[in-house]
Amino acid sequence: MTWLKEAIKAQRAILAARLESPMSGLAVQCAQSWRERDRLDETLRTALADMPVCRLLYAIDTNGRQVSSNVGRHAIERGKYGQNLAHRPYLSNAIPYKGFLLSDVYLNTPPDRRSCITGVQAVADGSSMLGFVAADFYLRDLPQLEWRTESAAGWRQIKGDPAIRHSLFQQERAKSAMDERLDDVIAIMDELICERGVFHGKLHFSSSRATLWLTDDPFRYRVHVLEEIIDPSICLAYRSQPYSTQTVVPPDLVRPVFEQFKRLRNADENIYLRSGSLNVINGMVGLTFSCDGSYYMPVHEFLDKNDGFWFGEPQT
User: What pLDDT, in 10s, does the model give residues 92-147?
Assistant: First the structure.
C-alpha cells in the first residue's frame, strides 16, 4: 500500500536525520583509537552516554569482523571481540563505504527477537577505509517521532485458504437463523450506528452474531448473539449520542451498506457473503466470502459496485 510505504519512509528519514550527526562525530573519534582495542572500547563507552536510547555500540572492520567489545549501557561484553558479523542484515545488503546508513528494521537474535534498527557509519583514516561503527536500537526505546495516520485508500482483495476455494462448488449456502431475520438486524444496526455510538459493526451471517465497537469505549468490543441483536430493546443498553464528528460516512448511507450485505449474502448459492463489516470513522467496508476471499474498500466504492463486479458479467 502506497500510504504505508510512505509512512515508513518518512519515519526512517526522521530517524536518520537525528542519528547522522552524532554517528559522524563518533566515527572521527573511533578513527583515532581504531587500532587500540581498550581505547576504542572507551571511546564507544563515552559516546554511549550521549546516546541515551542506544542499546549497543560496537566497531567492525571491512571484512565484517568485530574489532571492539559490545559496549552496552550496563555492561561491556569483551567476549564478542572477533566475531564475524558479515551475515547481519545491515552488512549483508548495503554497506556505507562512505557516510551513514540506517538499516531496515529486523528481528534481533534469540532469545529477545525484538524489532531493531541499526545505524552504520563508515570510519576512515584520511583516504584509508578502516571499517564501521554500529549503533543498535530497539524500536520500543526510540523517542516518539512525528506521526500521521491515514485511512487506507482504494480497495484491497486478499485471497484466503486455497483448499476452501477448490471445493467452492461442492458446497451450498445453508440459510442461517440471521438470514431469516436480516431485515430486523439491519434496522437495529442502523440505529446502533447512527444513534447509539457504534462506529464499527460486523455481522457474522453463518454464526448469527454481531460484533460492535463504540466511539466512547473503542478498546473493547461487544459480541451479541441473534436473540440479542434482533431485540429492539438492545438499543437501551447503549446510550443515545450524536453521530460522531469523526465519521466520514454520512448516516444516510449506513442502511444501504447493510442492505448491500443482504444482497451479497443471497445473490448466489455457491459464492455468498459470510461476514460484512462497516467502519464509519475510516469509511471502510470489510467483506469475507464463502470462497474465503476478503475485500476491503471505501463505502462509496462498495455501493457503486454492480453484480458483475462480484459475480462476473452474465454470459450472452
Answer: 666 667 789 888 888 887 777 888 889 999 999 888 899 999 999 888 887 765 55
Residues in the chain: 316
Give the start-to-end residue ranges of the domains of the chain: 2-141, 156-311
Domain topology for 2-141: Beta-Lactamase (3.30.450)
> How far is CA 239 from each of CA 18, 109, 195, 226, 279, rounded to the nearest angstrom?
47, 50, 9, 21, 19
For residues 66 and 39, the answer to whether their CB atoms sit within 8 Å is no
**240 is written with which cell numbers?**
443515545
Report CA torsion sign: 272, 275, 282, 104. Answer: negative
In terms of Cα–Cα distance, which of 4, 222, 23, 204 is closest to 103? Answer: 23
What is the maximum alpha-carbon separation in the chain? 83
Classify residue 43 by its DSSP letter.
Answer: H
Percent of the chain predicted with pLDDT > 70 = 84
Give CA–CA dist 136/58, Å, rounded: 9
Whether 50 and 64 have beta carbons less than 8 Å apart is answered as no
245: left (phi over 0), alpha (psi -120 to 50) or beta: alpha
The whole-angstrom separation of Cα 23 and Cα 125 is: 16
Which string of DSSP letters, residue by residue, matches 276-309?
EEEETTTTEEEEEETTS-EEEEEHHHHHH--HHH
Q: Distance (Å, rounded) from C-alpha 214 to C-alpha 270?
A: 34
